[in-house]
Amino acid sequence: MIVCKFGGSSVADAKQIQKVKSIVDAQVQRQIVIVSAPGKRSKDDEKVTDMLYACNALVQQGQSCRELFKKVAQRYTNILVDLGMDQKSFLPVLEEVRQMIDAGHGAEYAASRGEYLSARLVAAYFGWNFLDTDPLIVIKDDGTVHDQTYENLKKALHKGKKYIVPGFYGCNTEGKVKTFSRGGSDITGAIMARACDADIYENWTDVSGVFSVDPRLVEDAKVIKTMTYREVRELAGVGAGVFHEEAIAPVIASRIPINVKNTNAPMDAGTMIVTDRPVNGQPLAGVSAKKGYSRLTLRKLMLFKGTGIRHALLTMLHIFGVRPAFSLFGVDSIVWFFETSQASESVLNAMCVRIKSEFSLDSIEVDHGHAVVGIVGVGVLQEPDLIAKSTSALAKDGIKLNFFNYGSSDTSILLGVDAEQAQDAVKSLYHALF
Ligand code: ASP
């Protein structure tokens, strides 16, 4: 049995949905289909999910979303008309959603309706069963999937039946609609694949697989044929698009292979994501960079003399909403990199003042504009000249290195650079190593 997930561009208009139908019809094993909300039809178009967040924002400001929601409704009615379907029976469904958003059910409810409406429409077009993920998929406060989900789905799914499932949302432990993070329909697909023990999870998008480097940066970027779950996770963790990094978790234990494919070029093989792959002269999978990091530097003579200092400092950081992503420890210093979006300048100032006095530090500083570049591959620790090649390529291209993380993962090497040099660093490393 095959579980397929189709992303926003695959359901953006009637023509795309017709492509989805012919892909699904081509193989009887494709029995569970997860859909996103309609995405952009062109570069300047708007995603339905973004419009729904905007509808909720209006309601939060005390206004009605009636006018803006018309644009959302139009996306669906256009699709219905173009598919030759009856739009009348869909109008009350749209109106009910609008009323619920106007009644103040919140951002997650509003955003979830893109997928809800999409799945209802596609289910009607296919003549398949619509299976709502609220209340079947239970999402914990930290965004991870509650085990109860799999019991719920086992009871709800019937062998031989075909289902259209909305991506991106479920409910929280109190039964209120809850969404995953953006792009989260990939996670729903992985959950469904695990729940019905699929032979394969196909993830249909608008590119022919996962690229070893961002094709907007490097013209001859190549699609990776086979990569491991860990490689995908690490590559997504340093900003590579295509597949949601948290979508690996549900399928990794049951070893269900994921095939990333292109709705607009269905014959392309795409990328296979599996448990293991041989290194076979191909130690690396890809290179990517993620911007938006700040650096916190703390110094104190004999900083580590007292026990539990790291823990105490981290607890204090958490109080101010700062959760470091990368750490470096010196003899008398600690450097933490965290996402800049986690705290405002005034919060950071307050945090520094408090930490400096409570821990009697010699100095504490925050600076912004950092990026992390990841060289990802199952063979990173087995290539003796990888570091030499990387650092000399960066030096040759005048790229300054702020930190180096080697050995903490067997699947990636992380390098810190200034954000403005991140793209050049990726290009430089790609040309030197691939
Ligand atoms: N529609 C949601 C988003 O735009 C979820 C998804 O497409 O996977 O983030």
Q: Tell me the helix content.
A: 25-40%
Largest sheet: 8 strands, mixed
- In the CATH scheme, the class of the largest domain would be Alpha Beta
Number of domains: 2
Low-confidence stretches: none
In CATH, the homologous superfamily of the largest domain goes by the name Acetylglutamate kinase-like
Give the rounded overall mean pLDDT.
96
Number of DSSP strand runs: 16
Number of helices: 13
Any idea what the radius of gyration is?
A: 24 Å
Overall geometry comes to: globular
Q: What is the structural class?
A: alpha/beta
Order of the strands making up the biggest sheet: 3-4-2-1-7-9-10-8
CATH topology of the largest domain: Carbamate kinase
Q: What ligands does this structure carry? A: aspartic acid
Based on the structure given, which CATH architecture of the largest domain is correct? 3-Layer(aba) Sandwich
Strand composition percent: 15-25%
Short précis:
By secondary structure, the chain is of the alpha/beta class.
Walkthrough of the structure:
- The protein has an eight-stranded mixed beta sheet with strand order 3-4-2-1-7-9-10-8, sandwiched between helices. The chain has a six-stranded antiparallel beta sheet with strand order 12-13-11-14-16-15.
- The chain starts with a strand and ends with a helix.
- Helix 2 packs antiparallel against helix 5 and helix 3 (66-82) packs antiparallel against helix 4 (91-102).
- It has two domains: 2-274, Acetylglutamate kinase-like (Carbamate kinase), CATH 3.40.1160.10; 286-433, VC0802-like.
- The chain has helices at 14-25, 48-60, 66-82, 91-102, 107-126, 148-156, 185-195, 229-237, 249-252, 309-319, 345-358, 386-396, 422-433, and strands spanning 2-6, 30-35, 129-130, 163-166, 169-171, 177-179, 200-205, 226-228, 258-262, 271-274, 286-299, 326-329, 333-339, 363-376, 403-405, 412-418.
- The protein is α/β, with parallel strands linked by helices.
- Bound molecules: aspartic acid (ASP).
- Aspartic acid binds next to loops.
- The site of aspartic acid (ASP) has 13 residues, from loops.
